[in-house]
Design a protein that fits this description.
This protein has about 100 residues and is α+β, with helices and mostly antiparallel strands. It has two helices and five strands. A hairpin with a 4-residue loop joins strand 1 and strand 2. The model has no long low-confidence stretch (mean pLDDT about 90).
């Protein structure tokens, strides 16, 4: 995984949580005026899912366990986006051995 500017999506399996972590680059629509005043210019959205909740055929609504947003003052690299969202989603420091990246766009 390169540490280039993140602008897509990541789907990863988190072994310790037995859950998927989906990270998506923000489009700018969710930044509040207050966020912008505080210097935030970028964000990533994250969601966690159990395996049985992943929609592979469009028939089910994907129900997430939890979701959130991480704000950045500059464009994060792909690795920084994943690390920050992992920390926010699971409340612990990023552990590379705990993650298997399944898809990266």
């Amino acid at each position: 995984m390169e540490n280039d500017t993140f602008g897509g999506a990541i789907l990863a399996w988190v072994k310790s949580a037995k859950a998927f972590l989906k990270v998506q680059a923000g489009t700018g629509d969710n930044l509040l005026e207050e966020d912008i005043r505080e210097g935030f210019t970028e964000y990533c959205l994250w969601s966690t899912f159990r395996p049985e909740c992943i929609d592979t055929d469009g028939e089910l609504d994907m129900e997430y366990l939890d979701s959130g947003m991480v704000l950045f003052t500059e464009s994060p690299g792909t690795k920084a986006a994943l690390q920050s969202c992992y920390k926010e989603a699971f409340g612990k420091e990023y552990d590379e051995s705990d993650i298997i990246v399944l898809q990266e766009e």
